[in-house]
Write a sequence for this structure.
């Protein structure tokens, strides 16, 4: 007779099937372009996106800030859509895509980096939701219980991650979550715009201190931060090309909207880039209960995605590990970190975004050079698993490392001790540091270009198929 646990597992598998790192079977490739547009549109908006937009002003005037946001959203969403298409075509998660180009053990390197960043993102998301929700509950009900709110949001996000992508998108977002989020976000936007002064702010110049292309980098960093995750969800797509288009337009549009709204909160409503201050500013403009609702509904899917993908990343290293056990473990780790974070954590947010870009921008440039050009957009299951090099493919590490160095050379990013060490290295080599004073070029484009071109040069290309005799007109 089946135990309660076994019955629960059976029910979960029927309504929310889980899948490891092997190619997703056709029976589970159920997500349409509109499903993925709902997911990525929802993931493109959130409290931390508002905080990122707030970083651009008043250093940039509003017109230049909007231009940087539009350009960065489009540029960053292109590789996001391409990697999503690769995941849909191959049917495997993001870290498994690296096996042919980096080798099986080589793919463990980005898997480890991704696990670290996703646990960090999970902690940030839980911290932001719990902190602002606690402030609202304190003002409305006199309840000051940060750890209680942290426990509530952690449980909700963990439950969504355990349910899996298909359930989270079709039964949570499409039936309820996305409509609530869209309605609340439109309401907040209308309330902010109603405060007035847009014409005056549009003509006001920026105060300076933030180069335009560095501002573009800050915008590109947000879609780039999802590059390691996009294939984890898009592998369930029914059609790769349409899913890529849905991903691109939905994410670029949402990113443009919320970066711009974040800038407006600073210029119109007097907010600061601090997550807590943004939350309280919105509460004052649109009502505390609205903020609480948008935090619990709108941010929950972002933490869910981080938790789920962290578990899948570990499975690339330990394929037989229980996905659900890993999800609970990641959520617990993020919750512990969130319970220890203080307000000073917000000051590291900008560096965290740029540091993500310095690692993953060149890495995915190498992948796209190998997958899209070297293998003409198709690896196949054998190349991903049975025929993948067992060790580390060092010739692929070279362009990745080169792109990382170029990124750090253009925009030194990280803790103070790291920037000092990198500066001493370039000074010892008698090279300018950064490569251009003030870093006006940004780093994403130079880093991606350097890694992509070098990967094309050092990685072998798959030989084109030899046409059959009948295709050549036959032989005598």
């Amino acid at each position: 007779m089946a135990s309660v646990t076994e019955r629960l597992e059976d029910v979960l598998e029927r309504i929310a099937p889980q899948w490891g790192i092997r190619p997703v079977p056709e029976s589970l490739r159920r997500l349409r372009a509109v499903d993925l547009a709902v997911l990525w549109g929802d993931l493109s908006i959130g409290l931390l996106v508002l905080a990122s937009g707030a970083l651009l002003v008043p250093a940039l005037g509003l017109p230049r800030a909007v231009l940087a946001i539009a350009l960065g959203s489009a540029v960053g969403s292109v590789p996001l859509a391409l990697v999503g298409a690769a995941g849909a075509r191959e049917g495997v998660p993001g870290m498994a895509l690296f096996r042919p180009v980096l080798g099986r053990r080589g793919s463990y390197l980005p898997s480890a980096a991704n696990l670290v960043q996703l646990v960090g993102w999970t902690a940030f998301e839980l911290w932001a939701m719990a902190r602002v929700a606690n402030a609202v509950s304190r003002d409305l009900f006199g309840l000051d219980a940060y750890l209680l709110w942290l426990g509530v949001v952690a449980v909700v996000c963990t439950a969504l991650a355990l349910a899996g992508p298909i359930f989270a998108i079709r039964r949570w977002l499409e039936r309820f979550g996305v409509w609530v989020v869209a309605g609340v976000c439109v309401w907040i936007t209308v309330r902010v715009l109603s405060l007035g002064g847009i014409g005056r702010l549009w003509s006001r110049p920026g105060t300076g201190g933030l180069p335009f292309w560095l501002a573009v980098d800050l915008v590109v960093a947000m879609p780039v931060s999802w590059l390691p995750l996009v294939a984890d969800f898009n592998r369930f797509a029914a059609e790769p090309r349409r899913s890529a288009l849905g991903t691109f337009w939905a994410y670029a549009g949402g990113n443009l909207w919320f970066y711009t709204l974040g800038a407006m909160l600073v210029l119109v409503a007097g907010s600061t880039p601090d997550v807590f201050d943004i939350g309280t500013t919105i509460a004052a403009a649109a009502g505390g209960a609205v903020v609480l609702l948008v935090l619990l509904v709108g941010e929950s899917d972002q933490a869910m995605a981080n938790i789920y993908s962290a578990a899948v990343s570990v499975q690339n290293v330990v394929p037989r590990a229980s996905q659900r056990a890993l999800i609970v473990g990641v959520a617990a780790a993020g919750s512990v970190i969130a319970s220890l974070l203080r307000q000073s954590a917000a000051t590291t947010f900008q560096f965290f975004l740029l540091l993500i870009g310095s690692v993953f921008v060149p890495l995915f440039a190498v992948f796209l050079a190998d997958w899209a050009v070297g293998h003409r957009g198709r690896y196949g299951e054998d190349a991903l698993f049975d025929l993948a090099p067992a060790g580390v493919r060092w010739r692929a590490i070279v362009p990745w490392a080169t792109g990382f160095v170029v990124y750090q050379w253009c925009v030194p990013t990280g803790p103070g001790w790291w920037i000092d060490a990198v500066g001493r290295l370039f000074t010892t080599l008698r090279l300018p540091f950064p490569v251009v004073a003030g870093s006006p070029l940004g780093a994403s484009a130079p880093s991606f270009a350097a890694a992509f071109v070098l990967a094309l040069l050092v990685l072998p290309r798959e030989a084109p198929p030899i046409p059959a005799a009948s295709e050549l007109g036959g032989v005598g």
